[in-house]
Amino acid sequence: MEDRLSGNRIIEDAIAALHEKGGVQALENVAEAFRKRIEEGADLVIPVMQPEAEVKSMRPGRQNSNGLPDLRLQQMQGEDGKRWNVAFTSLEEANKGQKSTTVTIPMENVLKGAKDFKQEEGIVINPFGKMFLFSKEMIARTLVGEKAVPVENKILFDIGDITKMDIECIVNAANSSLLGGGGVDGAIHRAAGKELLEECRELHGCKTGQAKITKGYRLKAKHIIHTVGPVYHGKESDAQLLAACYQNSLELAREHGIHSIAFPAISTGIYGYPKEEAATIALAVAAGWIAQHKDYGMVIVFSCFDRETYEIYQKVLKENR
Question: For residues 106 and 165, what is the distance between their CA atoms, to the nearest angstrom?
Answer without folding.
Answer: 38
